[in-house]
Design goal:
Catalyzes a trans-dehydration via an enolate intermediate. The chain is α/β, with parallel strands linked by helices and 139 residues long. 33% of the residues lie in helices and 19% in strands. β3, α4 and β4 form a beta-alpha-beta unit. Bound molecules: 1,3,4-trihydroxy-5-OXO-cyclohexanecarboxylic acid (DQA). 1,3,4-trihydroxy-5-OXO-cyclohexanecarboxylic acid binds next to loops.
Length: 139
Amino acid sequence: MNIQIINGPNLNLLGKREPGIYGSEGFDTYFSNLKAKYPEINLHYFQSNVEGELINKIHEVGFDFDGIILNAGAYTHTSIAIADAIAAVKVPVIEVHISNVHARESFRHHSMIARNCKGVIAGFGLKSYELALNALSEK
Ligand code: DQA
């Protein structure tokens, strides 16, 4: 089973960025631990701050893989282009957020992409990614 994790803008700074909101663990450490915990799953990771590169990655894996776990960062709230990319591909996409976006500023309450996703997980810190992985890998 091939699962792609995609992180959008500013998520390369996890661990350093607003640790009160996003925690102090970097994503690389979290990702290595996740891979070790689920050796039977082929987990892939991609991060970009560039909207078009996120779209290219969705296209690249969106017809062959078994699922995409997408944290589109702030593009979640703005990007019709990412929403269209999710609608265009075949594989299920789960929208994830580290923080509980609904407990934050009102501009974070709306997602442009959620309607095209299989489901949304938010507010569990980095564990949000593992919960999405469990949802995708359940038979
Ligand atoms: C985020 C929430 C977004 O509103 C924000 O722009 C991010 C991170 C999260 O994981 O909590 O960059 O997607």
